[in-house]
Design brief:
mainly alpha; about 325 residues; about 85% helix; about 0% strand
Length: about 325
């Protein structure tokens, strides 16, 4: 009887723990958007924390140092936007005016294809893209609400990051405060390592985006591809998604190049290829390998999982999240 009683108690305990874990996972899934915003705030805080630490050593209060970094960053961003926006607007307006012609030429080229199955598939894709540009002015109200929601999220993220940085070791103190007493020491050590890797990843990622933007803009401009500024910005933004982003960003530039002439299309392909080879063999080894150190397969799987769970934002933060998880897994394997 006593043995049966113990079995019942153990079974009940396991069932209850399983239920609690499942409820916790379900709750985290429900609030995943909030968790993503919090994680982005941690990434930003980890990126600017070293600069704030440096200013603190120079007798600048942390709150003033964090505010100074924000002012510098947003001033640089505003300066860049003021120079680039007129060209971006002109190129986008020109592209929207000529989109029907471009997609018509693309459809005509496809119609000459010998393979009717591929013809129908690609023609359908071209029609969908063209209809997207045609209907871009619809649903203005919902799009406006989306813009305001996005701006609110940006304000919330930068506000959280500011308060994390304002207090010395703010990120670590926050993480440690929610951990059980027996795990506080390990949590502090783990947070320091994760914060260091995420900070390096963020700075390295910004550098990669800048390099790809500059290389693609110069290359596409020189070979005569239309709208080089828009295409370069598109490539720079998608650089935040490893492996997949560069492939996607190359497609519109190559298509536009072939619509000009086969020679320009091939040259556009060469431009993207050279930029990616330079990034893979020169820039990434210098900036990202030590910061992240993830296997390419693990990185791709993490991106797919992130995209499935939270869309584009999930894909963007999947790499630093996977880096943090890999540190925990390595610690568990060593025990």
């Amino acid at each position: 009887m006593e043995t049966q009683s113990k079995k019942v108690e153990i079974s009940t305990s396991i069932v209850l723990k399983t239920i609690v874990i499942l409820l916790g996972v379900w709750f985290l899934f429900l609030v995943r958007d909030i968790i993503i915003l919090l994680f982005i705030a941690v990434i930003i805080a980890a990126s600017i924390d070293p600069a704030v630490d440096y200013l603190q050593k120079k007798k600048v209060p942390r709150s003033a140092g964090a505010m100074l970094i924000y002012v510098i960053l947003f001033s640089i961003l505003a300066l860049i936007i003021s120079f680039m926006v007129p060209s971006i607007v002109n190129q986008f307006h020109d592209f929207s005016q000529n989109s029907s012609q471009y997609f018509g030429d693309f459809g005509g080229a496809i119609n000459s294809s010998q393979n009717s199955g591929i013809n129908r598939i690609i023609q359908g894709i071209a029609n969908n893209i063209e209809s997207s540009f045609t209907n871009i002015s619809k649903n203005i109200f919902s799009k406006t609400l989306g813009v305001f929601s996005g701006l609110l999220s940006v304000v919330v993220v930068f506000s959280m990051a500011f308060y994390m940085v304002m207090e010395e070791s703010g990120i670590k103190k926050f993480i440690v405060s929610i951990m059980p007493e027996k795990n506080k020491t390990y949590a502090a050590s783990l947070t320091d390592r994760i914060e260091g890797k995420i900070g390096k990843w963020m700075l390295g990622q910004l550098f990669l985006m800048l390099v790809i933007f500059v290389l693609d803009f110069i290359g596409l401009y020189l070979v005569g591809v239309p709208y080089p500024l828009l295409l370069a910005i598109f490539a720079g933004i998608l650089e935040v998604v490893p492996y997949v982003g560069p492939i996607i960003s190359a497609v519109p530039g190559i298509i536009l190049g072939f619509l000009v002439s086969p020679t320009v299309g091939m040259l556009a392909f060469v431009v993207y290829l050279i930029a990616q080879q330079f990034e893979s063999h020169v820039v990434i080894p210098l900036t990202m390998k030590k910061a992240v150190g993830l296997n390419p397969v693990v990185t791709i799987v993490a991106i797919l999982i992130g995209f499935k769970l939270a869309g584009v934002l999930g894909a963007i933060i999947s790499v630093p999240a996977a880096t943090a998880v890999s540190l925990v897994v390595n610690d568990l394997m060593e025990k």
